[in-house]
Amino acid sequence: MLPTLVVAAAYLVGSIPFSFLVARAFGVADVRRVGSGNVGATNVLRSAGRKAGGLALLLDAAKGAAASLLAMSLAPDQELTWALAAVAAVLGHMYPVWLRFQGGKGVATGLGAFAPLSPTAALGATGLFVLVLVATRYVSLSSIVGAVTLALLTLVLGSQGPVVWAAAVAAGLVAVRHRSNLHRLWTGEERRAGEPRR
């Protein structure tokens, strides 16, 4: 019973719509109705400015970390529960019950969720995300590369089996949520960071 409750709690923590709330605090009534319509830090950045985007990014990552730390505290020595909690937090961000399951793409929340479980992998994934972003200015491509890198690094660095599988599942979820971005990347229609809407 306890693992189920812990995972459910992680979903609820992940579903706190910080990006939506931050955008509203900065004057955007409903971030789902502007820009890309995504409830995530990138759309907050584009619609409400850098300060709002940075705050949304930090809060989304923090709630992911909080979900995993909660699981580690309530279910010590239960790596499977920790891993499921991390995935649950990502799903909570993507499909938040508070916003009729219309959420973001899970990148910042996923990074935060796996940081306590595999800090070195999270750090490496963040570094590669930044490098790809600087080189290409595609947030979507950087996000997918970062998510896949995180999963690969958990394997290479010898993380617990459940953490490796959970990171792979999270990377798959991030890729699926970016499927429209992948199509635009393929057709050359994807916007770069700082590029005005066409």
Describe the structure.
The protein is mainly alpha-helical. It contains ten helices and no strands. The protein has helices at residues 2-14, 18-25, 41-48, 50-74, 79-94, 107-114, 119-136, 139-156, 161-177, 179-187. The longest helix has 25 residues, at 50-74. The protein is globular. The N and C termini lie far apart (51 Å).
Q: Using the alpha-carbon principal axes, give the shape.
A: globular
Task: Give the terminus-to-terminus CA distance.
Answer: 51 Å
Strand content: under 5%
Query: What would you call the structural class?
Result: mainly alpha
Number of strands: 0
Radius of gyration over alpha carbons? 16 Å
- The SSE string, one letter per element, is HHHHHHHHHH
Low-confidence stretches: none
Provide the residue-averaged pLDDT: 92
Annotation field: number of helices: 10
Q: Oligomerization state of this entry?
A: single chain
Helix proportion range: over 70%
The major beta sheet can be summarized as: none
What features would you highlight for this structure?
mainly alpha; 198 residues; globular; 10 helices; 71% helix; 0% strand
Brief characterization of the structure:
By secondary structure, this protein is mainly alpha-helical. The chain has helices at residues 2-14, 18-25, 41-48, 50-74, 79-94, 107-114, 119-136, 139-156, 161-177, 179-187. It is globular.
